[in-house]
Design goal:
The structure holds two protein chains of two kinds. Chain A is of the alpha/beta class. In chain A, 48% of the residues lie in helices and 14% in strands. The radius of gyration of chain A is 17 Å and the shape is globular. Chain B is 45% helix and 17% strand. Chain B is built from 16 helices and 14 strands. In chain B, the strands form four sheets. In chain B, strands 3-4-14-9-10-13 form a six-stranded mixed β-sheet, with helices on both faces. Chain B has a four-stranded parallel β-sheet with strand order 7-6-5-8, with helices on both faces. In chain B, helix 4 runs parallel beside helix 5, helix 9 crosses helix 11 and helix 10 crosses helix 11. The chains are: A alpha/beta, B alpha/beta. Chains A and B meet through helix 3, helix 5 and strand 6 of A and helix 1, helix 8 and strand 11 of B.
C-alpha cells in the first residue's frame, strides 16, 4: 500500500492528511504500539514509525530523549518491524523514518524486503538524499515501497526537481531551517517551499517540523497536502512518566485537536 | 590538479566518503565546496594563508633529529614538531584556513566541535584572529577531563557549550554542532575539526593540513638527502595523519603507518580502533569505518586520549587502508603512556597523548627496521601536539602527585 492512497482519500474529503510520528520502543515496544494505534484511532491518516538511532542529527531534544529512552530499553530493528506490522494491520499506511546507517548495516535489500513483509509502506530518510540513495531507490522499486525524501527551504529549484522526481508516496517539506521540535509560531518559510515543490510535482506535499496544535495544523493545511507532527506527540508521553493511561489520554486529545485542525476546524 | 588519491566530484575516495546529510545542509555544503575550489585555485588566497601560517602559526615547524632516541632505538628518528605551532598542535593549520575561507565567504560566525579541546582552542584562536563570533561544542565528559582547554577557549572569547547527550564526548559534540549549523547556516560556517564528515570536509581539511607532509618531505630530503623508510602519525579522525601522508602517497618506498587508539586493547571492546576493529557504515555524513553494533547503532569508543576518542575515521583513511597503501596499527593506552614517558625523559619533549600513540607505534617499527636495515633506517613521526593539556591525565596515570611517584619507562 502506498501512502499516496491516504492523501488521495483526504483530498476527496477536501482536507489535508494528518501524519503522526513516534519512535518505536517508546516508552517501550508494546507501549509504543498502543500509542501509535491510539493515534490511528483518534484521526491520524498516516503513521511514521521512527527507528531510534544513536546519532540523530536532525532531531531536537524531545525526539532525541524519546529515542534514547527506547535505545536504553533495548529496542532493536526487529522491534521496529514488529511495531510497523502492528500499526499497518490497522489499515493506515505506515512508513518508517530512519537515519541511514541502521538500514545500511542491516542490509538495504534485506531491510526493504522485511519492511514490505511487515506491511510497511516505505521509508522517510532524513540523512539520505536521492543523489546518495541509488541502492535504496532500487530496493524500494523491487519491493513496491514508497521513498520519501526531504526538501528544505535552502533547496535550490534544481534540487527540488531532482528530489521530487525520486520520491514516491509524498514529498516531505521541512518547514524550518532547524531540527525537530514544537514551535510557537508556524514557519513563514513553509508556504513558499510548498509552492516551489508543487510547481514541479503532482505528488502530495506534507509539511513537518514545528506543528503542535490544531490551530497550527489548520494554518499549514491551508496550503499543504499533509501536516506532519512528531515532537508534540512525543511530549504528551514524556510529560506523563509512569502514568500510561494519562499519557494515552493526552495523546488522544492532541490527535483529535490536530485532526480537527487539518479539517479546517 | 587532481591526483589518483583525490576524491571524485561527489566526494568519494573509492567507495568511501560521499555526503550523507540532511537536505537542509546540502546547499551549504555545495556553497562551501565551490568556495573552497575557488579559493584554493586563487594564488592570492593561498599566499595569504601561507603568510598567516608563517607569521602567526609559526610554520614551517622544524623536523627534529631525536638523537638520543635514535641511539636508543638504533635507527634515525625524525620528529615533525607540530607541537611547536601556535596553540600547540597541527590543528591551527586547519582552522586558520577554514576561518580565512569563512571571511572570504562573508560569514561572521563560526562553530566548532572539540574532543580534547585542541581543535576548540585553535578554532577560538582563529576566530579571535579574524574577529569572528565563535561557539564551540564539547562533550560534557571532555569538558571535565580538559578543563584547562575550556578556560583557554573562554579567555579567547569563545562560547563553550557542554553537550550531555549520548556518550557526552566528541561524536555527540559533532551532532550538536550539526544541529546548530542546520539552524544557522545562512550566517555561520562550521569549522570541522578533522578530515572526516561530509564532502568537501575530508578533502578540504586534508589540503589545509598537507603542509605537514610537504614540509616534512622536503626537510627530510634537505637534511638526509633521502626519504624516510617509514612515516607514522596517530589517527582519530585523522587530520594530522592525512596531512602527513599526502606528500608521501606516491613514494612507494615509504611505508605509511597510522596508529589507532586501542584503549584497553581491541580484544576488550573498550577502544577506538575504528579501522582495525570497525565495520563499514555511515557516520556524520560519510561512508567509512565505524564502531557499531549489528543494528548500526554507534558504539561508544574509548581512549585515554580525548582527541582520539571517536568511533569513526576520515574516509580517505578508510580508502588507504582498504587499498593497502597505508597500514593502521592499534596502540593501547598503556603503550601510548609508556611512549609519552620515554620521549619526555629521552628528548625533553612532552608529547600530547595523541602523538604518543604515533610514537609508540613508530618505536615498534623502528626496532624492526633496526634489525632489518640498521642505523641507516629512518623513521619520521608526526608529533602532532604538545602534552601540556594532558598533564592531568599524566599525573593520574603515573602517580606524579605522590612524593615517590614518577614514570618508570
Amino acid at each position: 500500500m502506498s501512502v499516496s492512497d491516504a492523501f488521495t482519500r483526504a483530498k476527496e474529503e477536501d482536507r489535508a492528511a494528518l501524519v503522526g510520528y513516534l519512535p518505536a520502543g517508546f516508552p517501550d515496544v508494546d507501549g509504543g504500539i498502543e500509542a501509535l494505534t491510539t493515534m490511528v484511532d483518534a484521526g491520524c491518516d498516516v503513521i511514521e514509525v521512527g527507528l531510534p538511532y544513536s546519532d540523530p542529527v536532525m532531531d531536537g531534544p524531545t525526539i532525541q530523549a524519546a529515542a534514547q529512552q527506547a535505545l536504553d530499553g533495548g529496542v532493536r530493528i526487529r522491534d521496529v518491524l514488529r511495531t510497523v506490522e502492528a500499526v499497518a494491520a490497522t489499515g493506515v499506511p505506515t512508513v518508517v523514518m530512519t537515519y541511514w546507517n541502521p538500514v545500511d548495516r542491516y542490509g538495504v535489500a534485506r531491510f526493504a524486503a522485511d519492511l514490505a513483509s511487515a506491511g510497511g509502506a516505505g521509508l522517510i530518510t532524513p540523512d539520505l538524499t536521492p543523489d546518495s540513495g541509488a541502492d535504496w531507490i532500487a530496493a524500494a522499486e523491487s519491493n513496491d515501497l514508497d521513498r520519501i525524501f526531504l526538501v528544505a527551504p535552502s533547496s535550490t529549484d534544481a534540487r527540488i526537481a531532482m528530489t521530487t522526481a525520486a520520491c514516491r508516496g509524498f514529498v516531505y517539506a521541512t518547514a524550518v531551517m532547524g531540527v525537530t521540535g514544537a514551535r510557537e509560531a508556524t514557519s513563514d518559510l513553509a508556504g513558499p517551499l510548498v509552492a516551489r515543490t508543487k510547481a514541479v510535482t503532482d505528488l502530495p506535499v506534507a509539511v513537518g517540523l514545528g506543528v503542535s496544535s490544531g490551530a497550527q495544523a489548520a494554518e499549514v493545511a491551508a496550503y499543504a497536502d499533509g501536516v506532519i507532527v512528531g515532537s508534540a506527540f512525543v511530549r504528551t508521553i514524556l510529560d506523563h512518566p509512569g502514568d500510561r493511561a494519562a499519557g494515552l489520554g493526552a495523546l488522544r486529545a492532541l490527535t483529535e485537536d490536530l485532526a480537527g485542525g487539518v479539517r479546517g476546524a | 590538479m587532481t591526483t589518483a588519491w583525490d576524491a571524485d566530484e561527489r566526494g568519494y575516495f573509492g567507495e568511501w566518503g560521499g555526503r550523507y546529510m540532511p537536505e537542509a545542509l546540502v546547499a551549504a555544503l555545495d556553497e562551501l565546496d565551490a568556495a573552497w575550489r575557488d579559493a584554493s585555485a586563487d594564488p592570492g588566497f593561498r599566499g595569504e594563508f601561507e603568510a598567516i601560517l608563517r607569521d602567526f602559526a609559526n610554520t614551517p615547524s622544524p623536523l627534529y633529529h631525536a638523537s638520543r632516541l635514535s641511539e636508543q632505538l638504533g635507527v634515525t628518528v625524525l620528529l615533525k614538531r607540530e607541537d611547536l605551532n601556535h596553540t600547540g598542535a597541527h590543528k591551527i593549520r586547519n582552522v586558520l584556513g577554514q576561518a580565512l575561507l569563512t571571511r572570504r565567504m562573508g560569514k561572521k560566525r563560526v562553530i566548532a566541535e572539540t574532543g580534547a579541546g585542541q581543535h576548540g582552542v585553535a578554532a577560538a584562536t582563529a576566530a579571535a584572529y579574524f574577529g569572528l563570533d565563535c561557539t564551540v561544542y564539547m562533550g560534557e565528559v571532555d569538558t571535565r577531563r580538559q578543563a584547562l582547554n575550556v578556560a583557554r577557549m573562554k579567555l579567547l572569547g569563545a562560547t563553550v557549550v557542554p553537550v550531555s547527550s549520548g556518550s557526552a564526548t566528541l561524536k555527540d559534540a559533532i551532532n550538536e554542532a550539526l544541529r546548530d549549523w542546520v539552524a544557522s547556516v545562512d550566517h555561520t560556517a562550521y569549522l570541522f575539526g578533522t578530515a572526516a564528515g561530509p564532502h568537501p570536509f575530508p578533502s578540504m581539511v586534508r589540503d589545509l593540513c598537507r603542509g605537514i607532509g610537504d614540509e616534512a618531505r622536503q626537510q627530510c630530503l634537505d637534511q638526509l638527502g633521502r626519504l624516510p623508510d617509514a612515516i607514522a602519525a596517530c589517527v582519530g579522525g585523522g587530520s594530522n595523519a592525512i596531512g602527513l601522508f599526502t606528500a608521501f602517497l606516491d613514494d612507494p618506498e615509504v611505508a605509511i603507518l597510522g596508529m589507532e587508539p586501542a584503549g584497553d586493547g581491541v580484544e576488550t571492546g573498550r577502544h577506538a580502533a575504528t579501522i582495525s576493529a570497525g565495520a563499514a557504515g555511515v557516520l556524520h555524513g560519510a561512508r567509512t569505518f565505524i564502531l557499531q553494533d549489528e543494528d548500526g547503532q554507534t558504539q561508544e569508543s574509548h581512549s585515554i586520549s580525548a582527541g582520539l576518542d571517536y568511533p569513526g575515521v576520515g574516509p580517505q583513511h578508510a580508502h588507504l587502508a582498504a587499498s593497502g597503501r597505508a597500514t593502521y596499527v592499534p596502540i593501547t593506552d598503556a603503550q601510548a603512556m609508556d611512549a609519552m614517558a620515554l620521549l619526555s625523559r629521552t628528548e625533553g619533549i612532552i608529547p600530547a597523548i595523541e602523538s604518543a600513540h604515533a610514537l609508540a607505534g613508530a618505536f615498534d617499527v623502528a626496532r624492526r627496521l633496526a634489525d632489518e636495515k640498521g642505523p641507516e633506517a629512518v623513521v619520521l613521526v608526526n608529533l602532532s601536539g604538545r602534552g601540556d593539556k594532558d598533564m592531568g591525565t599524566a599525573i593520574e596515570w603515573f602517580d606524579l602527585d605522590k612524593p615517590t611517584g614518577g614514570p618508570v619507562g
